[in-house]
Each structure stands twice: as structure tokens, then as C-alpha cells.
Amino acid sequence: MHQYLFHIGDFPIRMYGLVLCMSIFLATGVAYFLAKQDGRWQQHILDIGIYGGFAGLIGGRLWDVFFFDWDYYQHHLLEIPFVWQGGMAIQGGVIAGVLAGIWYCKRHQIDWLALADIVCPAILIGQAIGRMANLLNGDAFGTPTGSNFGLLYPEGTLAFKTYGAVPLWPAEVWEGQLDIVIFALLLLFRTTDHAKGQAMCLYVMLYSAVRFGLEMLRGDYVEPFLFGLKSAQATSLCFFLTALGFFLYFGWREKHTEAVPQITNKKRSKK
């Protein structure tokens, strides 16, 4: 972990912010590659990346503040913008970024669902690199492993402040690695004959399943939110079930749409 790259006078240049910005830039670059490879809308990707990036930063911070740490921030409102302390929720960032992308697509008459299918693997590149930022900053950490295995965080990090010099589960590292696995699975899925919208739904389902499981190891917040589940687990479960419903619906809709012209053609041939 290395929180600071260097200082300009008393002003620190933090690795967290630099790596977070890099995650947005590289995710946008991968999205451009995927869109250009598909042959549609690549000229809009940079603008969508800018709007989605800014919206994602705001959404990620507000999601963390209000869903995870409101007990603290309701008494420290001036610290809400202090993102370098840790506290950027990926779920809120993705939702806000996607909503900004949908808004942009509506303005420019782009089929946002088709575009989401094309570029959704790029989101995972941003998430994986974002977890590197968490590791460098010492946040999004795990609970104590109770053994010699685990990550040791240095003084000055939130992890050290919470648990001290004890080995913690590498929750953020494993999540970043699993993001790359999901990235590869989505690329493979896109080579299959799937209905429009299903790739985006699969992304939501796979990431939600990973996040639900890894939350059992997270130690930056441990209070139950709903039915004994942490807040991220509750939202992950909701996202998974919603995405599964839409995944099945999109598949049914495409089959139904293909069946209608066939029936119509048969009627015409009889005439």
C-alpha cells in the first residue's frame, strides 16, 4: 500500500485519485475498442465516458455516504467530499454512470440497450483497476483472518485504524481479480447468439453474485442492513433478481418477435 505518490509543498498527490482516474480513462478506451470492433457508435464513446465518469464519481460517493456510512457522515457533513478517506461504492458509481449514459443516448437517438451490451465488459476493467486504488489507499478491506495469512496494512490507513497490525482477508484484491474473470466471460458470451440486453443483464448478475459472496469477508462495515444482510448484500440480491428477470424477458421477447413474422408469412403463403 502506498497512499501518496509525492507532495507538492504540503499538498499530497494521492495514488487513490490517480488510479481512480486511470480506471475511468482505460475503461473508456476499452469501450471505444469494443464499439469500434462492433462498428457502431464509437464516435460517441469519449463523450459518454466523460459524462459517465463524472456521474459515477458522484454516485459512488453518495451511495457510500448514504447507504454505508450515514451514521458517521450525518455528524460530519463537511467531510462528504473527502473521497481520499475511502468510500466510493461501485454499485452507486455504476448506476449513476449508466444513467448518465442512457441520458446521453436518448439525446443522440442511440439504442442504449444495444450499446450497453457492447461496452459493458469495459465497466469491469474500470472496476478492477478501481480495486487497485482501494488497495493502495487501505480501504475496502477485509476482516481479520485469524491466521498468518492476509494483508497487513500500514499506519495511516483506515484498515490499520480499524483492526491494527493484524492480517486481513484480501477482499478488494479478490474482487478485482474476479472482475477480470467476469470480463472474459462477458466477451465469450457476446460471441453467442443472445438477445439484446442479455449481456448487460449477465454483467449485473455475475458481479452481484461476486459482491454478495465477498461481502462476507469485508471488514470496513459489518452492521446488518436488512434481514441480517449487509447493505451491499441486500442491494446485490435485488440487482441479481431484477437482472435475472430482465435476462429471461429479453430472451422471451426476441423469440416471440421472431415467431410473429414467421406466422404472418405462413398466412400470406396460404393466400
Automatic annotation (TrEMBL):
Any one GO molecular function term: phosphatidylglycerol-prolipoprotein diacylglyceryl transferase activity
Localization of this protein: Cell membrane
Transmembrane segments: 13-33, 45-63, 83-105, 197-214, 234-252
Chain sites annotated for binding a 1,2-diacyl-sn-glycero-3-phospho-(1'-sn-glycerol): R131
Pfam families found in the cross-reference section: LGT
Domain of life from the UniProt record: Bacteria
Protein name in the entry: Phosphatidylglycerol--prolipoprotein diacylglyceryl transferase
HAMAP family: Lgt
InterPro entries: Lgt
Annotated pathway: Protein modification; lipoprotein biosynthesis (diacylglyceryl transfer)
Keyword annotations from UniProtKB, A to Z: Cell membrane, Lipoprotein, Membrane, Transferase, Transmembrane, Transmembrane helix
GO biological process: lipoprotein biosynthetic process
Originating organism: Phascolarctobacterium faecium
